[in-house]
């Protein structure tokens, strides 16, 4: 049954792309007033006139209580909850414009799955920097916007230390096709959603190259091992990756051509350049920048991440993917689950020259 929600003010959503639009509309479908902010005044007019965001989510009628606006103050002032669906490269700059209209009781919920280039910050860390004392939540999970728009049964995670915030977001978003699970591990939930984009690029590439289902399964499982290793090195709890925001999101993005990161990988696998792959997409694919940032961080901290290292060589230096894959296959043999058998307890030489990765 749909959760009944009460309200005294409106909900704001910043970012009028695919995900911002479906989040805004899911709340508006409950009859609550929602202000969806975007920078493009012409698109605002088009959306309010046609009741559809034709650029990002065509064929998705918008509920009557959703109002698009290009006026950031109007969107924010008096909002009970503010969802932030702004790509990571613009997240801090939009937040800096917003901060003047924010008040301490408002809940700020990031839906963005990326890493800031200069600081290696996740979005909740940027919110904490820019809005000290803010009530912060992170929404993440296997949530392809275009499937939500078709009302496919979907689940997500709201992560926050703030219990009242968690229950309010569960109430606001819950519907017969959308379930919201709770977590207190903000960093783990956010890290899972961010890291999986890297492996979705690899999965798309392997699909374009005609690799089989064994290969895809190996890729996804070793990706989970690698993500967990990275999480532990960053002080995060790898158990969170067993949930929707970890393995759940990894599965959907590594399997679906609706994922933009998968599509970038697919285009690269077809022989397109990175610039071509990204420009044909016309939407944000966070995994490209995340790959760069995580590769640098793993090198700096000496974290064993052979998939990240290999993919980086393919995407950024043009190394042939079959050659990189072959060298990984002949690398030293390793442990399946290193929480069961530590990696350094089982290194056995592989079938060929060992790699330093
Ligand atoms: N789409 C999905 O399925 C999901 C996406 N996410 C995450 O949500 C975040 C947003 O993704 P999504 O909505 O899909 O992205 P889209 O590419 O669909 O849209 C991006 C939106 O951000 C706006 N934008 C870009 N730069 C700026 C800026 N400098 N100032 C203001 N607005 C800006 C764009 O405006 P303009 O049109 O004017 O360029 C556009 O409205 C990403 O981090 C993504 O990982 C999370 C879950 C699912
Ligand atoms: O995060 C997503 C699904 O959960 C969306 O993935 P893409 O950004 O690759 O489309």
UniProtKB/TrEMBL annotation:
* Chain residues that bind NAD(+): 15-20, 145, 260
User: One GO MF term, please?
Assistant: glycerol-3-phosphate dehydrogenase (NAD+) activity
What EC number(s) is this enzyme filed under? 1.1.1.94
Write out the annotated subcellular location.
Cytoplasm
Q: Which terms under GO biological process does the entry name?
A: carbohydrate metabolic process; glycerol-3-phosphate biosynthetic process; glycerol-3-phosphate catabolic process; glycerophospholipid biosynthetic process
Gene name tied to this protein = gpsA
UniProt-annotated binding residues for sn-glycerol 3-phosphate? 113, 141, 196, 249, 259-261
Q: Which residues form the Glycerol-3-phosphate dehydrogenase NAD-dependent C-terminal domain?
A: 185-324
Role this protein plays: Catalyzes the reduction of the glycolytic intermediate dihydroxyacetone phosphate (DHAP) to sn-glycerol 3-phosphate (G3P), the key precursor for phospholipid synthesis.
Please name the top-level EC class of this enzyme.
oxidoreductase
Instruction: Print the keywords alphabetically.
Output: Cytoplasm, Lipid biosynthesis, Lipid metabolism, NAD, NADP, Nucleotide-binding, Oxidoreductase, Phospholipid biosynthesis, Phospholipid metabolism
| Catalysis performed (reactions) | sn-glycerol 3-phosphate + NAD(+) = dihydroxyacetone phosphate + NADH + H(+); sn-glycerol 3-phosphate + NADP(+) = dihydroxyacetone phosphate + NADPH + H(+)
| Positions that bind NADPH | 18-19, 39, 56, 113, 145, 260, 284, 286
Tell me which GO cellular component terms the UniProt record holds: cytosol
Show the Pfam families listed in the entry.
Answer: NAD_Gly3P_dh_C (PF07479), NAD_Gly3P_dh_N (PF01210)
Looking at the record, the residues that make up the Glycerol-3-phosphate dehydrogenase NAD-dependent N-terminal domain are 11-164
| Originating organism | Nitrincola lacisaponensis
Positions annotated to bind substrate: 113, 260-261
Full protein name = Glycerol-3-phosphate dehydrogenase [NAD(P)+]
Provide the family line: Belongs to the NAD-dependent glycerol-3-phosphate dehydrogenase family.
């Amino acid at each position: 049954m749909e959760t009944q929600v009460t309200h005294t003010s409106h909900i704001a959503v910043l970012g009028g792309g695919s995900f911002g639009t479906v989040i805004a509309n899911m709340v508006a479908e409950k009859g609550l007033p929602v202000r969806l902010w975007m920078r493009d005044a012409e698109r605002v007019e088009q959306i309010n006139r046609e009741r559809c965001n034709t650029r990002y989510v065509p064929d998705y009628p918008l509920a009557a209580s959703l109002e698009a606006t290009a006026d950031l103050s109007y969107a924010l002032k008096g909002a009970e909850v503010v969802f932030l669906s702004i790509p990571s490269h613009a997240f801090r700059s939009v937040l800096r414009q917003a901060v003047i209209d924010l008040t301490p009781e408002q809940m700020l919920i990031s839906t963005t799955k990326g890493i800031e280039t200069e600081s290696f910050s996740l979005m909740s860390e940027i919110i904490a920097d820019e809005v000290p004392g803010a009530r912060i939540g992170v929404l993440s999970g296997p949530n392809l916007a275009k499937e939500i728009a078709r009302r496919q049964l979907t689940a997500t995670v709201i992560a926050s230390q703030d219990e009242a915030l968690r229950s309010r977001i569960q109430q606001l978003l819950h519907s017969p096709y959308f379930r919201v699970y709770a977590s207190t591990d903000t960093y783990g939930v956010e890290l899972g959603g961010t890291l999986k984009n890297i492996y979705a690029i690899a999965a798309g590439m392997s699909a374009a190259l005609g690799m089989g289902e064994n290969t895809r399964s190996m890729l996804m499982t070793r990706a989970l091992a690698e993500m967990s290793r990275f999480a532990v090195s960053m002080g995060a709890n790898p158990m969170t990756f067993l949930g929707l925001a970890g393995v759940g999101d990894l599965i959907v993005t590594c399997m679906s051509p609706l994922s933009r990161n998968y599509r970038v990988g697919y285009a690269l696998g077809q022989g397109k350049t990175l610039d071509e792959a990204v420009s044909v997409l016309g939407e944000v694919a966070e995994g490209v920048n995340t790959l760069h940032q995580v590769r640098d961080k793993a090198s700096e901290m000496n974290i064993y991440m052979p998939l990240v290292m290999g993919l980086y060589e393919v995407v950024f230096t043009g190394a042939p993917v079959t050659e990189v894959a072959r060298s990984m296959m002949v690398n030293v043999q390793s442990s399946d689950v290193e929480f069961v058998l530590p990696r350094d307890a089982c290194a056995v030489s592989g079938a060929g020259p060992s790699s330093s990765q």
